[in-house]
What we know:
The structure holds 2 protein chains of 2 kinds. Chain A is 75% helix and 0% strand. Chain A contains 14 helices and no strands. In chain A, helix 1 (4-35) packs antiparallel against helix 14, helix 5 (94-129) runs parallel beside helix 14 and helix 11 (252-282) packs antiparallel against helix 14. Chain A is globular. By secondary structure, chain B is an alpha+beta fold. Chain B is built from 17 helices and 20 strands. In chain B, helix 10 (313-322) runs antiparallel to helix 12 (365-374) and helix 11 packs antiparallel against helix 13 (392-407). Chain B starts with a helix and ends with a strand. At the A-B interface, helix 2, helix 3, helix 5, helix 7 and helix 9 of A face helix 1, strand 1, helix 4, strand 10 and helix 8 of B.
Amino acid sequence: MKSFGATMIWAGRRFLSSLPALFGVLVFTFLLMRVLPGDPAVFFASGPNAGKEEIAIIRKQMGLDKPVPTQLLLYLYDVGRGNLGRSIMTGQPVTTDLRDRLPASLELTFTALLIALVSAIPLGVVAALKSGSVIDHGVRLFCALGVCVPTFVSGLLLIYVFYYLLGVAPDPTGRLDVFTSLPPPRTGFLMIDFVLAGDIDGWWAAFRQLTLPAVTMALFVIAPLARITRASMLVSLGSDFVRTARSVGLSWWRIVVTYALRNAILPVITIAGIVFSTMLGANVLVEKVYSWPGVASYALDALLSSDYAPVQGFVLLMASVFVAVNLLVDILYGIADPRASMG
Amino acid sequence: MRVMYCRPMFSAVAVLALWLAAGPVWAQTRAETLRYVTGASVNTLDPNVPGTTREAFAVSLGTYDRLVSFGRKQLNGRWVFDLDKITGELAESYDVSPDAMKITFHLRKDAKFQDGAPVTAEDVKWSLDRAVTAPVLGKAQLLTGSMTSADQFKVIDPLTFEVTLPKADKLALPNLATVYPIIINSKVAKANATAEDPWAIAWLKEHTAGSGAYIIESFKPGEQVVMKRNDAWNRGSPEKSAFFKRVIVQSVPEPATRANLVERGDADLVIDLQASDVQSLEGKGTLKVVSTPQYNAVTFISMNNQIPPFDNANVRRAIAYALPYDDMFKAALFGRGTPLFGAMWADGKPTTSAYPFQQPVKLDLDKAKEYLKAAGLPDGFSTTFSFNVGQASTAEPMSALVKESLAKIGIKVDIQKLPDAQMSTQINEKKLPFFTEGIVAWLPSTDYFYRNFYTGEQRWNYSSIKNTELTAIAQEARFEPDKAKYDEYGKKLNAIHFAEMPQIPLWQPNQDAVMATSIDGYTYQFHRQVDYRDLNRK
């Protein structure tokens, strides 16, 4: 493996080379939003007396009274200065909205991914070790159920059981009970902010709030992770080096974890990276069901009302996250597999 | 062996259940707190900003006072707003001159803004000037009450304020009780105004400077608003402050979750549940359900009277007789509303001067076929029927029935489901031939409905009808002081509506307010939101 400095330089170069793609995404989304047939000004001018004048005001507010090329240039200029425009829907600058909501989405996605990995990898390993057995079929059934039940169904079901019937879960409304006060915002991650503030009760309340949505999301992504773990475990269990390890009488644990799993983990990391980026953008249903104030439900609401700026901001954010996650995956790859070249 | 592998799963579930089981410590003030959940969200603290949501209107009613407000009355055992009873809010009393061209308001001596400054006629003038001059929503609203210019507003002395009208207008006073003409602390607002924004629109969007019953504690657009009681406020009808010490307005997008919350007692009140959920909650009998027909709203099936074949009145009549009204009413609303079909008009003339009114139409396919033949389209035609995603829960089952029934008279219908913004754009551009939509009027008088929804080249004229007689009568009626004459005009307008059939009123959906049994005082308001000041807990 190369030195840390070399890795950083390499990562920096990789990041720079993805900038044109980000720019392309920016321009493409901008144009796409304008091609869509909804007119946001008409939609938002929907008070009982709103007429042509109100539509004109909103159009001017959104800068839609100018020709599209001028709008694009102004938009690019603003983005360059870190201003993503203003959302009509929430009345706030898009950067503020995203900054408030991204930690919520990230916290949920990280937790869900953690739950998913912690359960998927052992499941996949067990299924591979006992391939063809009842356990293997059980894992397969569990995975199939997880994938084919849409998240809003499993979400509503979990709410029904744990909140409505058993009454053990808190009400599924957002990141924190309405009667608990927020910690001073430092990172935006409630689990961290409460610890920093030393508020154990608050941390507990936030944790309870987070559990159900994270489990709902995890259920959906356990399947690809467990399946890929199983498949690559099968390959590496059948490989020469495992046979050699067995023949020299190494312990079961060492064979399975140190040799087989370490070699099998590469595709799992890749898939986990992809799953993470997808979850962040596609968990809109979970966010809706649990009233989670995340970025995905924000973008969907904006899209339905043709609120251009938030949608464009969201797509840009997702593209950047995707670039960052891929970069991270590549770096992890290098750590897991010394052969992976970073050129 | 199998059992051993099951154990980790089992203990994981057990641990999960234990983690979740520790109950929250309820604040002692829970009984004094109102938790209201809604699918919509609050996006501004100033109801005047273009793009304001209805939830934001409701919040502004708590945070700001107006000069006057509507009283309330009983309608079939439920409290609803009373358009004919205007009571003082910031005004202690008002006098209307004999020619009805001047209204003088006497302000309350004890009224104070939330920062402690007294409310003066200067503040009232600044606020109303803002409503008619600044680029805000109030402008178009106050226009309907003949208030268009700052010259009409005059400060007589610090506690007396006068509005002059160019013409006697019945709607002038009611207009001042609507959502927009809030009274703002002008000193605070001016201090936060800028050269480009002399009316402090940007600042007031995020801050309040009012005298209302509630003070904003926290405002997270799209998530929740928390308000605390203004103990000094005494503009409620019994001359005391509002009941609830704290009001939490929380956005919960999923309707099933809202139903769960109110059923479990975690939320106190919700007004936007799905009809099916309301039905089942009502059946369980553990909650209070107040269903009020939204008598200032109408749901239509609308036809563009300028696009063939709907430019032919016989085609429109054919459709009116080919709709399976009863089935649609049950499928879309579970019968929760007031039907606007199936009336009996003995001599073929309207029996009421009020609008919305029940039309004497019912499903009659033979009659529909006759009308189609008279229109020269005996074999029918093809068209699209559109509705927006936001209304899908009611419009989807309804449009399937429309399609099925119209197929029987040879009209082939394609159903088109449009995102809300697209639908409003196409309506505004008058491109949709056949669709369903709803309207609401804050000040529901017959002439107001006809002037706003049946005249002109504007968006709300869904059917794009251009009928000179209708337009003339509606204008005439607006300034008609004589009740009997006004009724005559109303009946004439309704007769034209039935003869021309520009669009087909279907029903007035119920507003289903579902609340804990301890909540009392709920009143159906003109803005169709909850006025938190009305509520108390027994």
